[in-house]
Amino acid sequence: GAAGGVGHLIVQLAVDAGAVVTGVCRPEADDFVRSLGAVRTLDYGFADRPADADGRYDIILDTGGRRKLRLLRRHLASDGTIVVVGGEGGGSVLGGFQRSIFAPLAAIGSKQRMVGLVSTDSGPVLAELAALVASGRIRPRVHATLPLERAADGMRMMRAGGVRGKIALEL
Question: Read out DSSP for the chain?
């Protein structure tokens, strides 16, 4: 999800922090993800393939929630970490949070860690992010701006895929 609403920001934050980033995206988003600072891109099917020689990652940030954790783990370094950021699907009670809640249990007995990320509002963190944006070090990208009454169209666009960055709504 390196080209999506959350992923495109994560790529930039990681690069700003000094990480060497490989972004997972659709082939048509390769140039966009590389423009964010990723040095390599992989298509979404990477998790279904065996890990290649360069395919052991210290950290995997899973923003899409569509791949089974066991498939992602084989691309993870023996002491690496998978961070589950939200998710899609899930049951009627937990929804997309099911993976975030149960991910740590899947790593019991392993050096690998799996954690679920649940964000909270924090004044100091938001101020730091705002400073990064103001300085130009992080550049949120807007794929489309729609009037509020077309919010449902924006959701359909996101579900269809191919959105690069955020969809903004005007009041």
Answer: -TTSTTHHHHHHHHHHTT---EEE--GGGHHHHHHTT-SEEE-GGGGGSPP-TT--EEEEEESS--S-HHHHHTTEEEEEEEEEE--S---TTTGGGHHHHHHHHHTTTSS-EEEEE-----HHHHHHHHHHHHHTSS---EEEEEEGGGHHHHHHHHHHS---SEEEEE-
Q: What confidence tens digit (pLDDT) does each residue in 104-115 have?
A: 777 788 899 988
Residue with tokens 């990477």: 46
CA 90 to chain centroid: 18
Predicted local distance difference test score (pLDDT) of residue 119: 74
pTM of the model: 0.85
Question: Which pLDDT tens digit goes with each residue over 41-54?
Answer: 998 888 777 776 55
Per-residue pLDDT band at 71 (split at 50, 70, 90): confident
Contact 132, 17 (CB under 8 A): no
Query: For 17-55, where are the alpha helices, taking DSSP H only?
Result: 30-35
Whether residue 148 contacts residue 169, with contact meaning beta carbons closer than 8 Å, is answered with yes
Mean pLDDT of the chain: 87
